[in-house]
What we know:
Layout: E1 2-7, H1 10-21, E2 25-30, E3 35-37, E4 42-44, H2 47-54, E5 59-60, H3 68-75, E6 81-85, H4 93-96, E7 103-107, E8 115-116, H5 119-126, E9 130-137, E10 147-154, H6 161-182, E11 200-201, H7 217-226, E12 234-237, E13 240-250, E14 259-263, E15 266-270, E16 275-283, E17 289-290, H8 291-297
Parallel strand pairs: 1-2, 1-6, 2-5, 6-7, 8-11
Antiparallel strand pairs: 3-4, 7-9, 9-10, 12-13, 13-16, 14-15, 15-16, 16-17
Amino acid sequence: xxxxxxxxxxxxxxxxxxxxxxxxxxxxxxxxxxxxxxxxxxxxxxxxxxxxxxxxxxxxxxxxxxxxxxxxxxxxxxxxxxxxxxxxxxxxxxxxxxxxxxxxxxxxxxxxxxxxxxxxxxxxxxxxxxxxxxxxxxxxxxxxxxxxxxxxxxxxxxxxxxxxxxxxxxxxxxxxxxxxxxxxxxxxxxxxxxxxxxxxxxxxxxxxxxxxxxxxxxxxxxxxxxxxxxxxxxxxxxxxxxxxxxxxxxxxxxxxxxxxxxxxxxxxxxxxxxxxxxxxxxxxxxxxxxxxxxxxxxxxxxxxxxx
Length: 307
């Protein structure tokens, strides 16, 4: 099958690598334009572009797919399918209609739960027991198309957004290869999504990652994992942001945000219900440190208040 692949970050690059290894004919790779990154703010390829160039695949980086010239380029390829994974550009209906068999999306949730930009983080924040991958026939809506294949995955108690991302990227790459194997045999039966079960995974904002100590410890612990690595859960200490990278639910009682104890085993902070034992932290401009290393350079005494 002649494929166009559209994607940008690591999640999509894993799927592209799997499609290449499966021997599919990828006639074009679409990815976001190079962006400035790092301290030097030099232009950097997307992960998908890096994989494409390594394998000698043609790459296009249009600013928009609403442009008639970009659509004409796609139409000239005579592609059977477009595979889309975390691309970052809206595909208008005119683009969805170009490939002979339409466009398939690799979505990191069990649709219709967690449509939208941040399904991995939202599943963790909600305390979901499982998530997964949905291979979906794309339509003009936001992750509303018919489902062709679903693969579930249990969320482990220690999963962060990063570890869950990596598991789902691997599962997604396996699922899209399986779906393409089944497609010519007409084994994929489109299933409409139940709108009554739909939830929306809104994009995560930096301010949202600020800890509200009035919340129960269990909810805050989930937030620490959900915002790891981006944007990083944080609290304010003496007017400066303090990022919390790892924490455990613990017993304890006090005014929310109050440090109850502080030693190399963790910094115990009171929450609205229970307490949180923080075990990995980072000061503004500093490095991520385990609590023993952190306390070697910063004195944190019981009674101080984090906001």
